[in-house]
Amino acid sequence: MVDALGSTSATGMSSETLLADVSWSDADDRIEERLVVRLAPRDADIPVFPRYDLDHQFEAIRRVGELTSVPVPAVWWYEPDPAALGAPFFVMSRVDGEVPPDVLPYNFGDNWLFDATAEQQRRLQDASVGVLAELHAVADPEVEFAFLADAARPGSALRRKVDRTRDWYEWVVADGERAPLVDRAFAWLEDRWPTDEGPAVLSWGDSRIGNVMYRDFRPVAVLDWEMACLCPRELDVAWMAYAHEVFEDIAADLGAPGMPDFLRLDEVAQTYEHLTGANLRDLPFFTVLAAIQYAIVFLRTGRRSVHFGERERPAQLEELIMNRSGLERALSSH
């Protein structure tokens, strides 16, 4: 029996999230569960990504839960048939915790993370980096997570990742003008391709703290696996720091206080290397790759806002890219 069904304020830009309280009888016992339902977006919603492999997300969460101590919700089932809810979906257990807010961003002030002590903020930062260290330590990731390999594409794991990103960009701009800044950034990547890409690891792909639930400043649920892939470890490390940098740039533009001493790339990398013994390389390259992906997200969500009449279409497409100053900075500083 479904006792309650509703949406959540945590519903993100990439898919819809529902909350469900369910109960049933098993022999002499009555069982109650608090569940989360993640649905694939409909085409009419102008989705962020061209494909939503919910089965891959489901399987990634399940295997991470089996192979590591990284906290992920228990997954129940994946339903590919859209008949029941209007779209494919999967179901997982609900976890209680606090999420660093995106709206308004946590570094704007007046929230639990901004108001925390420096020691608490550092505890959260180091514990979040620890999640990456453990995910990247999964043995034989190309076997255990072969479904993420995109094996039909030629080349290395990094080449496949960049080519997928380029295809995503081409899909976003297919019916309109291009963004010269993004085109220039892709050319920058090709000119500075790492001479040694390093091994492919299980990459969370969207390793920002806004995708984590915390309790006592430690992760209790690692969420949002839409971008999971096999890729060099440096991408997750660069992404975690760059995601905060995006918010810092927005805070500076709007006169918000920001958190300039939090999630600095040098400190994130130092902690990661201490935990893993790995030697991180080519972080500028992976920072630019992260910045490109953020730019694509902003292009897509910006065009969606225009489509639904939430904003006027700007004179130039690049004005939709909220991280363009950060992308410019990354391109010019390395």
CATH class of the largest domain: Alpha Beta
Largest sheet: 5 strands, antiparallel
Task: State the CATH superfamily name of the largest domain.
Answer: Aminoglycoside phosphotransferase (APH), C-terminal lobe
Helix content: 25-40%
Order of strands, widest sheet: 1-2-3-5-4
Kindly state the number of beta strands.
9
Proper CATH architecture of the largest domain: Alpha-Beta Complex
| Secondary-structure content class | alpha+beta
Which residue ranges are poorly predicted, with pLDDT under 50 across at least 5 consecutive positions? Answer: none
Q: What Rg, in angstroms, do the CA atoms define? A: 20 Å
Secondary-structure element series: EEEHEEHHHHEEEEHHHH
CATH topology of the largest domain: Aminoglycoside 3'-phosphotransferase, Chain: A, domain 2
Distance between the termini: 58 Å
Q: Hey, roughly how much beta strand do the residues contain?
A: 15-25%
Mean pLDDT score, rounded? 93
Quaternary arrangement of the chains shown? Answer: single chain
Shape: globular
Total of domains:
2
What's the gist of this structure?
The chain is α+β, with helices and mostly antiparallel strands and 334 residues long.
Description:
By secondary structure, the protein is an alpha+beta fold. The protein folds into two domains: 1-94, 2-Layer Sandwich (Phosphorylase Kinase, domain 1), CATH 3.30.200; 95-332, Alpha-Beta Complex (Aminoglycoside 3'-phosphotransferase, Chain: A, domain 2), CATH 3.90.1200.10. 40% of the residues lie in helices and 16% in strands. It has helices at residues 54-67, 118-136, 141-144, 157-172, 180-191, 234-254, 265-276, 283-307, 324-332, and strands at residues 2-7, 16-26, 29-39, 75-79, 89-93, 200-203, 212-215, 218-222, 229-232. The strands form three sheets. Strands 1-2-3-5-4 form a five-stranded antiparallel beta sheet, covered by helices on one side. It starts with a strand and ends with a helix. The mean pLDDT is 93.
